[in-house]
Amino acid sequence: MRAAPAVVACLALAACAATPGPAPAPGTTVPVTERPSASAAPSDVPSPTGSPSPSPTAEPSVRVQLLGTLAVTPGGPPSLQAAAGAQVTTHPGDALQITVTLADDPIPTRLELRLTPGAQEVTVNGGVAVIGTLPDGVLAAVPEPEVLDEDDQPVASALSARDGSLLLMVTPEERHAGAITAELWVGRQVIDEVTVGAERDQPMYAIARTPFGHALLGGGLGSPGARELFEQLGWRQAVALQPALSSPDSLKQQFDCHVLGAPRKQSWNLEAFRLDHPDWMRGALEHRCNWEAEHVPVPTATPGSPSPSASESG
Fold first, then answer.
1. CB count, 10 Å around CB of 213?
2. Which residues lie below 8 Å from residue 56, measured CB to CB, with a gap of 6+?
3. Who's near 258: CB < 8 A, 6+ residues apart?
4. pLDDT digits (tens, 9 = 90+) for 51-64
């Protein structure tokens, strides 16, 4: 009896590597999809419970829009080589105001502000981007941008830094009406001038901010990072303009109080006669940075502590 010949089938699988395409041009829409891992089960294979596995879902497309290339140098003003569609206004104090209008559709848009090669470290902390290092090496700062639709309703946005660029991701929703406008500020000088007067026979210092100083804190409380930056950078600039501000300690306390509680005021008055008040945040809604003696708690003696001697008292 003759045996039937055995049939052997061999399948060869060739691995193919995709060749990357050219980078998207500014203003183009980039679709982003989530690919399943190699170990993921096909969607038509039933799961242990009998229900089909979920198919990978595609993320929304992202439009990339270039704002321009920003140059910052120690001791010099920031300068911007603006991209098409970006409007730039220069303000006193060497600040730049960058305004751009996004397309009238709900597609998320990533705005990119590139830095010149060799620029210093860029960090984003508490809603403000700092180019350089605190407190002495700040070359420029970019506060949390304002993004509004045609009805002046805020649009969600997030500021970040990556590969020598500042990125602003704008994520509109269907409810937002018409075109969306984003406004970014770039600057460093937040204090314009310090004017010296008198109050109760002691010096009073009127602090005036630059347009960028107002933009940094915004119309409200500002972001935590903006307040921290203003308390450090702004105070150093104020003292540089008027060294007498360095004493007494209550002047710095009043300054910090105004940063937190009076961002809308055109100028801040700091009076030298006010008492030292490290705990000024307590009762701030009542004293509004203008505390009197009754607002400052009297230190209490620690139980068991010795009373001052006759030579120490008086």
1. 22
2. 33, 34, 35, 36
3. 207, 265, 268, 270, 289
4. 454 444 445 589 99
